[in-house]
């Protein structure tokens, strides 16, 4: 008996950098002192007050089937948050609660793409994007955002790829892995292409609470885009609730209605006590989100200081998110070769740029996810290592 082509071709043969990550974890398990700067996991845990609310809700009996679209109060709160940020009228009918942002990305492609249709996404990209698109039966089509343009996508490049026919385009700002926040000019250019080519937009905005320069602008707020955009959000990054698996999709009411039907046949909703905790967390307001983001803001400043005055590494301006993208091409090495040697010689684990697509070749991604002093020391070792390769 054969397995489905959908499942056996979900990912390409490339490791996507996970081989290095797994090797670093194996080294740690064997007793080697490895500094991990790999995945986007907070070094703080979920606020105990949020966990107390989750516990209270569970003991109070909210452990049965919850409303599949999400409990009304949470959908209202998400709608209010999105409307306040974007200026676009939003109600609970525009909101579907999902088991994390990843589930929202998959459901969005299922809603917008028929099997065999092209689905565009920006390269560099979060590692799951191509597999998510394949899982929905669509064909992943990368559009390179070039380092010489500061990894801001060029709408003309999107237009060239879209000209071959496409159902959707997925963007991510603030961006993982580059830390770039897309400018208004970039987003308006993307919107123009989307309207001209009749593309749906899927906007991954899970890092919207982590902006260090400028401001986050949702493409949904640009004229004519609310009716063709699905915004994916999550409690994972804004409230350090990665393991709770709760997020949302915001979009046109008709699309959300069909996605509720999809949820009925797939996830069957999110546990009620987790939704209650998310509602409690959102009602704590922006200050609580700023507290979760504060360590990454501090570490960005640490990085700017450590990396100043050296020429082995070029820092892509970190405008948002919890990562640094470092150009290591001055060493003459690939991102993969640099990361492997760094792990072997310095016991520091980072992700090769090639993990995130061809456009990030010759770069490495550094997650700002360890304590401040340890982070600063690791960066200094990384700089010394890079200078020794020149």
From TrEMBL:
Cofactor dependency: pyridoxal 5'-phosphate
Keywords: Aminotransferase, Pyridoxal phosphate, Transferase
Residues annotated as domain Aminotransferase class I/classII large: 33-381
This enzyme's EC code(s): 2.6.1.-
Top EC class, one word: transferase
PROSITE patterns: AA_TRANSFER_CLASS_1
SUPFAM superfamilies the record matches: PLP-dependent transferases (SSF53383)
Gene Ontology BP terms: amino acid metabolic process
Catalytic activity field: L-aspartate + 2-oxoglutarate = oxaloacetate + L-glutamate
Gene Ontology MF term list: L-aspartate:2-oxoglutarate aminotransferase activity; pyridoxal phosphate binding
PANTHER family named in the record: ASPARTATE AMINOTRANSFERASE
UniProt similarity note: Belongs to the class-I pyridoxal-phosphate-dependent aminotransferase family.
Protein's UniProt name: Aminotransferase
């Amino acid at each position: 008996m054969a397995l489905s082509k959908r499942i056996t071709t979900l990912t390409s043969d490339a490791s996507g950098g996970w081989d290095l990550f797994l090797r670093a974890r194996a080294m740690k398990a064997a007793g080697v002192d490895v500094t991990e700067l790999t995945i986007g996991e907070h070094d703080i845990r979920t606020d105990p007050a949020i966990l107390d609310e989750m516990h209270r809700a569970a003991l109070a009996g909210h452990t049965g089937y919850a409303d599949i679209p999400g409990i009304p109060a949470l959908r209202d709160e998400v709608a209010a948050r999105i409307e306040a940020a974007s200026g676009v009228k939003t109600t609970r009918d525009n909101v579907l609660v999902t088991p994390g942002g990843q589930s929202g990305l998959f459901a969005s492609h299922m809603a917008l793409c028929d099997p065999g249709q092209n689905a565009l996404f920006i390269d560099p990209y979060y590692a799951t994007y191509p597999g998510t698109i394949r899982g929905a039966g669509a064909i992943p089509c990368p559009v390179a955002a070039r380092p010489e343009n500061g990894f801001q996508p060029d709408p003309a490049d999107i237009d060239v790829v879209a000209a071959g026919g496409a159902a959707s385009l997925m963007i991510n700002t603030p961006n993982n892995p580059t830390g770039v926040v897309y400018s208004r000019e970039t987003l308006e250019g993307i919107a123009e292409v989307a309207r001209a080519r009749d593309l749906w937009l899927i906007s991954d905005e899970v890092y919207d609470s982590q902006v260090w320069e400028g401001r986050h602008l949702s493409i949904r707020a640009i004229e004519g885009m609310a009716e063709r955009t699905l915004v994916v959000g999550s409690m994972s990054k804004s409230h350090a609730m990665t393991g709770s698996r709760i997020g949302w999709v915001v979009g046109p009411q008709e699309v959300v209605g069909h996605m509720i039907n999809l949820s009925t046949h797939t996830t069957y909703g999110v546990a009620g006590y987790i939704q209650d905790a998310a509602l409690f967390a959102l009602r704590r307001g922006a200050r609580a989100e700023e507290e979760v983001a504060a360590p990454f803001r501090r570490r960005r400043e640490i990085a700017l200081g450590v990396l100043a005055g050296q020429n082995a590494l070029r820092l892509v301006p970190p405008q948002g998110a919890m990562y640094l993208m470092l150009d290591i091409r001055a060493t003459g090495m690939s991102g993969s070769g640099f990361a492997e040697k760094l792990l072997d010689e310095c016991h520091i684990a980072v992700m090769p740029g090639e993990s995130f697509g061809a456009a990030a070749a010759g770069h490495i991604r550094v997650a700002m996810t360890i304590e401040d002093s340890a982070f600063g020391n690791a960066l200094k070792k990384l700089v010394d290592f890079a200078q020794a390769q020149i």
